[in-house]
Design goal:
heterodimer; A: alpha/beta; two-stranded antiparallel sheet; B: 168 residues; Rossmann fold
């Protein structure tokens, strides 16, 4: 068993920088703490977010990937999020979209709620799980330079691909503000412009 | 009332006439004859999910990308998919049509009178979620299939079709 409590970890910022430098016209589905940071680094009309349905980023991205086979789709998932929908690894491997990149930010904690540890005590290895599920390729990195050197080969090969990125958790949490009655949920505002942009491309 | 079995080829024709391109599913014993036809069909793609809440998110993603999906699940899966029905289908205003099999229903009784909680609580749960539903209790009810897609588009939200007894 791998003891991931001892693995090398990069900053989330450095991990997302490596991805942002390769951002082109991919649809990117973000979730949890990485989502806000990603949207700042890579603002784009093809950014989507999984907000309000924790665990759903991978399968929302799968649907987009299956509907747009000529366009690359990246999902920037969280480890706690993916733990909630682990079966999605099998679903994605079964559907086998070659245009699907599944990034898993592995910080070992539920950062949004105050950095409580995952049930696995940080030992779960999503790259090995994805290998077992049948992803075409997987990679695992804790060093940003090493990730930067390897990512182009991973992007060039056919997916589905899962890249596990070990990052250091930040000391923060998020509290929800009350939603005014009658307001339109974020997801309902977010996806129609993405659908419109895709339809025009 | 007595629910009549719907022949699989007739239900498939109704699905095809509704313009469905993808059926996103977790297998339903109740509709297995339809599943057999769908999986052998060259035009409609089947996408197999591990859980029903995954199926909701996959369907939403397909809609974003311009496809016309339909979910096909069993009533037990409705209960398992509630968080994504709320957080994706309802909050996201996605026009997702769900075909839900009422496995084990007594065809002589209204679903709300059924002895099984999985059958009995199905429509009350959908009402609580503000999801309209239509019962397919025989071939004469198949007009609801295409109409459900129109209704989902008009209300910008999910609509459920309940398959009343085992398809033949």
């Amino acid at each position: 068993m791998t003891d991931n409590t001892e693995v090398q970890r990069m900053s989330l910022d450095a991990a997302l920088d490596v991805l942002a430098r390769r951002r082109d016209e991919q649809v990117v589905v973000g979730t949890m703490t990485a989502n806000g940071a990603w949207r700042q680094k890579s603002p784009h009309n093809l950014n989507l977010a999984c907000i309000g349905f924790m665990g759903g980023a991978s399968t929302l991205g799968l649907g987009v990937a299956l509907s747009q086979p000529e366009r690359d789709v990246w999902v920037i998932d969280g480890d706690g999020s993916l733990m909630m929908q682990l079966g999605s690894l099998g679903t994605i491997a079964g559907a086998a979209p070659s245009n699907f990149l599944h990034i898993v930010i592995h910080n070992g904690v539920y950062e949004t709620s105050g950095s409580q540890p995952l049930p696995s005590q940080q030992q779960v290895d999503f790259a090995r799980m994805a290998d077992g599920a049948g992803y075409a390729q997987t990679g695992s990195f804790g060093d940003a330079e090493e990730f930067d050197s390897a990512i182009d080969d991973l992007l060039a090969a056919e997916g589905p691909t899962l890249i596990q990125l070990y990052t250091r958790p930040a000391d923060r949490f998020y509290s929800a503000r009350p939603t005014p009655p009658g307001s339109t949920p974020a997801l309902a505002r977010m996806w129609p412009p993405v659908a419109e942009a895709l339809a025009k491309m | 009332m007595t629910a009549q079995s719907i022949p699989a080829d007739q239900l498939l024709s109704a699905i095809r006439e509704a313009g469905v391109q993808d059926v996103v599913l977790v297998p339903d014993t109740h509709q297995r004859t339809v599943l057999d036809l769908l999986m052998a069909d060259d035009e409609i793609r089947t996408i197999h999910c591990s859980t029903e809440d995954e199926a909701v998110a996959v369907s939403a993603g397909l809609i974003i990308g311009g496809r016309r999906p339909m979910m096909q699940i069993q009533h037990a899966g409705l209960y398992a998919s509630v968080n994504n029905l709320r957080g994706v289908a309802l909050d996201g205003h996605f026009p997702i049509v769900l075909l839900i099999g009422l496995l084990g229903r007594d065809p002589e009784l209204a679903p709300e009178q059924d002895g099984s909680s999985m059958v009995r609580l199905c429509r009350p749960l959908l009402e609580t979620l503000d999801i309209p539903s239509h019962l397919l209790d025989g071939p004469e009810d198949l007009h609801h299939v295409a109409e459900a897609f129109d209704e989902a588009q008009e209300r910008n939200g999910p609509v459920a079709l309940l398959v009343g007894t085992t398809t033949s």
